[in-house]
Amino acid sequence: MQNIPLLSLNDGYKIPAIGYGTYPLDNPQAETAVREALSCGYRLFDTAANYGNESGVGTGLLSFDVGRTDIFVTTKLRGRDQGYDSTMRAFDASLQRLKMSYIDLYLIHWPLPMKDLYVESWKALVQLQKDGRVRSIGVSNFLPEHLTRIIDATGVTPAVNQIEMHADFAQREALEVHKKLGILTEAWSPLGRGSVLENPVVGRVAQRHNRTPAQVLLRWVVQMGAVPLPKSAHPARMKANIEIFDFELSETDMNDLATIDGNHRTGADPATCTEE
Ligand SMILES: NC(=O)c1ccc[n+]([C@@H]2O[C@H](COP(=O)([O-])OP(=O)(O)OC[C@H]3O[C@@H](n4cnc5c(N)ncnc54)[C@H](OP(=O)(O)O)[C@@H]3O)[C@@H](O)[C@H]2O)c1
């Protein structure tokens, strides 16, 4: 089993350099998959109230012999729960479903600018962190203007922004903004939901290293300075996806992979997404 490096967050906590994504697993599937992922060596787990699988994730984590401080659990506030008081209630409910006394990282799932509640929601996350109920706080799918607004309103910079990122949607500008602000980028859909796996450039780089296309795409995320959150329901793929810390892509590989960035989203646009 490979040793997964730990990266430092801007609040002093450490986060594993790769995580296991749990969408769209249901509760029973998530329970099995999380146990399997733990045995492959994953220690960072990504769920959300909106995935409807926090309970399965929590049960899976409890069923494996691992210390609480050796795992890192992320969940997210869904759109319909945005607002100060409703965020507090939603956090309690997530904690209960996960069967945990604290969460490592709590994120606002989408900014939903049309509701204009993300600043109030962020204030609630800041309070939850002050109360010691969550270790790190962050956001997901926030554009630079949303980041600036919550930082200006509270003086607290998110530890993480989890955004769509893969070789066909490289997010270079967002990465630059995050770096300047001291925010760690997490990459959701790091395999482009499977859409980039068949790309011939990825295939050629994979051949050079005797690796799979998925390993090349995940290693690319790591070398871009972000934390990939791949999802697979298959144990052999889960295991292969985490084995990316014993090889390095060269400058030529990175330049070749840069050519496939078509600025193609596979998911929703944060400026208009109305996730509830
Ligand atoms: N914050 C947000 O708004 C947001 C949005 C979307 C996703 N996410 C998070 O990001 C995680 C990952 O994103 P995602 O699931 O959309 O996309 P992804 O990880 O890019 O791709 C998952 C797809 O790739 C397949 N796959 C995985 N490993 C493979 C391999 N080695 N070889 C071939 N196929 C492979 C999976 O199939 P099998 O399962 O059949 O292997 C699945 O169909 C989610 O689970 C979730 O935790 C967050």
Automatic annotation (TrEMBL):
Catalyzed reactions: hydroxyacetone + NADP(+) = methylglyoxal + NADPH + H(+)
Binding-site positions, substrate: 109
InterPro entries: AKR, Aldo/ket_reductase_CS, NAD(P)_OxRdtase_dom_sf, NADP_OxRdtase_dom
Site entry (Lowers pKa of active site Tyr), positions: 76
Any Pfam family matching the protein: Aldo_ket_red
Family: Belongs to the aldo/keto reductase family.
Name of the featured protein: Putative oxidoreductase
